[in-house]
Amino acid sequence: xxxxxxxxxxxxxxxxxxxxxxxxxxxxxxxxxxxxxxxxxxxxxxxxxxxxxxxxxxxxxxxxxxxxxxxxxxxxxxxxxxxxxxxxxxxxxxxxxxxxxxxxxxxxxxxxxxxxxxxxxxxxxxxxxxxxxxxxxxxxxxxxxxxxxxxxxxxxxxxxxxxxxxxxxxxxxxxxxxxxxxxx
Amino acid sequence: xxxxxxxxxxxxxxxxxxxxxxxxxxxxxxxxxxxxxxxxxxxxxxxxxxxxxxxxxxxxxxxxxxxxxxxxxxxxxxxxxxxxxxxxxxxxxxxxxxxxxxxxxxxxxxxxxxxxxxxxxxxxxxxxxxxxxxxxxxxxxxxxxxxxxxxxxxxxxxxxxxxxxxxxxxxxxxxxxxxxxxxx
DNA sequence: CGTGAACTTCACAAATTTCTGAAGACAGCG
DNA sequence: CGCTGTCTTCAGAAATTTGTGAAGTTCACG
Lengths: 184, 184
Description:
By secondary structure, chain A is mostly helical. Chain A folds into two domains: 27-117, Winged helix-like DNA-binding domain superfamily/Winged helix DNA-binding domain (Arc Repressor Mutant, subunit A), CATH 1.10.10; 127-181. Chain A contains seven helices and three strands. At the A-B interface, helix 1, helix 5, helix 6 and helix 7 of A face helix 1, helix 5, helix 6 and helix 7 of B. Chains A, B: It comes from Actinacidiphila bryophytorum.
């Protein structure tokens, strides 16, 4: 991938297109979002889907990621993504459960805000610790079932060892990331 | 063509795990597999599915993993897993494409053998290099779209940096694994 | 307390995925 | 050459997943 650092062209044009269809009329909730940004949302969401996240949660999450404050209301999400309130509700439940967003509510308001849970969402997203544990556990049972002195047993045992190794490595890796990111 | 007059027997559910019975006749291909091992296959396959692999490829792969030689014929797979030859064909195509198995054919035989590609299948399975590259690339575009001096831009940029970091780390990690595994 | 805004739940329709039977293609063998 | 065993392709049935409309619930506020 190209390494572009030096001559960053004066690119402010992107941020200035923010008002295509702002209704002058009664309290329009919608904040028109740049077509480029919408395209990114869909592209990013598609990759989340590919990684296993359901479609609506992916789109909602992507929209939150590029939102100025990292937070949007239910209505804003429904409007921007052209989906029903029910779809927003489902997506938001999924994301909250996954620990990726937080539900906020201004006291004395019926309106909820959904906010990115922290600025390190990808740590949550890539955290597969519990999965690795289960893989290892399943595999160890398998070793027992096929007999540990068989070829199959040795295959499974090595796989289990790999997942055990992975668990240790990933922990260390995240520590290195936290250090590294302060240098960015 | 609707076949309503034909009294279609109730669809055999996949859950009904029929006991593998050795046919008395000569040349029975099937090798009865222990119920414990079958249970492991299904459990392991379920975890592969959870990780994103389609059901049939997962089951086929699991069956190969616990097979004595790490290889089975199409017929053996169909029989053991109670699936149609078509399903085996599809699963095997998927697995070969993914680089997890190898197709073998004894010269002068019409029968194919599917063999685990190597004893380090999990290296292949966990190799997400290309994915990471695409994530990073998508994210960099996003930074550009939202403007790199916005909050959203900084969020995306940090995420991109994380995926770049991951790419480097995973490479090193696999090297450490190869060293470590020789000590097992 | 009643009203209505805002979110949630539910049942169903639509879209998608998955597996099967059946026909097809390919290759060894008589 | 044609037969037969083995794998592949294909159309369609079944199951599953998804998203919507509409009814239900909750709660701030009058």
